[in-house]
Write a structure and sequence with these properties.
- By secondary structure, this protein is an alpha/beta fold.
- The chain contains 8 helices and 13 strands.
- Strand 8, helix 6 and strand 9 form a beta-alpha-beta unit.
- Helix 3 runs parallel beside helix 8.
- The radius of gyration is 21 Å and the shape is globular.
- The structure holds the ligand Nc1nc2c(c(=O)[nH]1)N[C@@H](CN(C=O)c1ccc(C(=O)N[C@@H](CCC(=O)O)C(=O)O)cc1)CN2.
- The site of the ligand Nc1nc2c(c(=O)[nH]1)N[C@@H](CN(C=O)c1ccc(C(=O)N[C@@H](CCC(=O)O)C(=O)O)cc1)CN2 has 16 residues, from strand 9.
- Catalyzes the hydrolysis of 10-formyltetrahydrofolate (formyl-FH4) to formate and tetrahydrofolate (FH4).
- Its EC number is 3.5.1.10.
- Pathway: Purine metabolism; IMP biosynthesis via de novo pathway; formate from 10-formyl-5,6,7,8-tetrahydrofolate: step 1/1.
Length: 287
């Protein structure tokens, strides 16, 4: 049987000796490195690293707690912000959606076919349109309409669903409500939105209409971490497709749906596989 694999991710203030410190720890503990990627941002002075490793011989710490206990002194010495988990761990996620269900369909299908690296724990929506689809997949659906003056209560209910589902990640899969500053702060670094344009172009509502009016030759989609500032969060993934004068707004919307679904799934998988790091107003995404 293949030995269990582990993923160590870390970030820290950059200095000489980080890679040596980590690889030295693994060597001393019979850790066999399967994949290692690191990046030094010379502008911010931050360092990022992701190591995939497995048991390489006798003396390898047995289990997550033993590994974390063994690594903690090294991490303290190097002043690391770190996380260590089994490679097959899939973070639990809540998906939020409004009336456009194409990204939700895609995520549910990928989850069902084992191609999604997060576990969909529940789906919430300010409309009831997705209930039948979600329940067909055997997943909890929560209809959280926004009553007049009820945005704060609705957001509390959304946080309640995340807590009850033990979910760490919130995915806005064409959820057309602007999260409050408070909610955005509470899910900072663990909330991913898909915006239906190639940011920074065409922020806000109805980007395809405005792209058509502008006569663009490329349209795209952008997955980003959510912040309190609409469509301003750190970009995780983007893609574009060529369009031309023959493509009316309906065509742009149709072409855009596929781009949105693909870009969002890539971003969610980067998060689930611990390949994604916040780096100030930007991100580091290991391939
Ligand atoms: N705090 C944030 N919340 C959300 C973000 C974000 O970047 N920061 N992105 C949106 C998604 N989105 C574009 O990608 C978007 C959604 C909604 C709107 C908008 O103007 N909504 C209106 C209501 C529209 C309606 O009811 O249909 C509003 O909220 O008043 C613009 C952009 C998700 N949330």
């Amino acid at each position: 049987m293949e030995p269990r694999r582990w993923i160590l991710t870390l970030t820290c203030e950059d200095r000489v000796g980080i890679v040596a410190g980590v690889s030295g720890f693994l060597s001393r503990n019979q850790g066999f490195i399967v994949d290692s990627q690191q990046y030094a941002d010379l502008e911010t002075g931050r360092f990022f690293m992701r190591v995939v490793f497995q048991r390489g011989g006798g003396g390898f710490p047995d289990g997550a707690d033993a590994l974390r206990e063994a690594f903690a002194p090294v991490a303290g010495e190097l002043a690391l912000d770190w996380s260590l988990s089994p490679a097959d761990h899939r973070p639990r996620a809540v998906i939020a959606v409004s009336k456009g269900l194409h990204c939700l369909h895609d995520l549910l299908h990928r989850a069902r076919s084992g191609a999604l690296s997060v576990e969909i724990a529940a789906v919430v929506s300010n409309h009831a349109a997705a209930r039948e689809l979600v329940e067909w997949h055997g997943i909890d659906f929560h209809h959280l309409p926004i009553e007049p003056g009820g945005r704060a209560a609705q957001e509390q209910a959304l946080l309640g669903v995340m807590a009850d589902a033990d979910a760490e990640l919130l995915v806005l899969a064409r959820y057309m409500q602007v999260l409050s500053e408070d909610l955005a702060a509470r899910v900072s670094g663990r909330c991913i939105n898909i915006h239906h344009s190639f940011l920074p172009g065409f922020k806000g509502a109805k980007p395809y209409h405005r792209a058509h009016a502008r006569g663009v030759k490329l349209i795209g989609a952008t997955a980003h971490f959510v912040t309190g500032d609409l469509d301003e969060g750190p970009i995780i993934e983007q893609a574009v497709e060529r369009v031309d004068h023959r493509d009316d707004i309906d065509a742009l919307v149709r072409i855009g749906r596929d781009i949105e679904a693909q870009v969002l799934a890539r971003a969610v998988n980067a998060y689930g596989e611990r390949r994604l790091f916040l780096n100030g107003g930007k991100t580091v995404v290991f391939r």
